TrEMBL record:
<keyword id="KW-0378">Hydrolase</keyword>
<dbReference type="Pfam" id="PF05951">
    <property type="entry name" value="Peptidase_M15_2"/>
</dbReference>
<comment type="similarity">
    <text>Belongs to the peptidase M15 family.</text>
</comment>
<keyword id="KW-0862">Zinc</keyword>
<keyword id="KW-0645">Protease</keyword>
<comment type="pathway">
    <text>Cell wall biogenesis; cell wall polysaccharide biosynthesis.</text>
</comment>
<dbReference type="InterPro" id="IPR006311">
    <property type="entry name" value="TAT_signal"/>
</dbReference>
<keyword id="KW-0479">Metal-binding</keyword>
<keyword id="KW-0732">Signal</keyword>
<keyword id="KW-0482">Metalloprotease</keyword>
<protein>
    <recommendedName>
        <fullName>Murein endopeptidase K</fullName>
    </recommendedName>
</protein>
<dbReference type="InterPro" id="IPR010275">
    <property type="entry name" value="MepK"/>
</dbReference>
<keyword id="KW-0961">Cell wall biogenesis/degradation</keyword>
<dbReference type="InterPro" id="IPR009045">
    <property type="entry name" value="Zn_M74/Hedgehog-like"/>
</dbReference>
<feature type="signal peptide">
    <location>
        <begin position="1"/>
        <end position="30"/>
    </location>
</feature>
Amino acid sequence: MTDFSPARRQLLLGLGSAAMVSMISSPAFASRSTQGSRMLTMLNLHTREVEKGAYWVDGTYQKPILTGFDRLLRDHRANVAAPMDKRLYDLLYYLQENLKTRETIHIISGYRSPQTNNMLAKKSGGVAKKSLHMEGKAIDIAIPGIKLDKVRDAAKELQLGGVGYYPKSGFVHVDVGRVRSW
């Protein structure tokens, strides 16, 4: 039988207690991060349609709400909807958190069909030929009562994707592509 010195016994008890605390507290931290809900309200300025809902509840994306959001963000010219990247909704949610607002997000452009994107690219040099709008990974927005430069700065601070600033056109482009700004 091995005889432990009081100092060694103290060390082993301390390590055992630390292991027990970490096993008990880890699930608590994990569950806390997946509790609650994320809600958005959006207005499509072209169709005047509004969608509102908790798209994420207790760690789970809510398919019926996401489907409604995808329809709202459809290419209104071609009347074609596509699944939008869920990270885009998270970006909008965190942007509102950063700006400390729950105002309705005004949508200028969400999904774009390749035909619509090509048509817009021919009319304007500001439309990318391989736009992330065609992949459901970009959205052009404005938030009433918040200056565009503040929306731009808050989006850049998040470092969640690309941020384009179009003050003459009245919107900020955000996407979930690589981090960059223009």
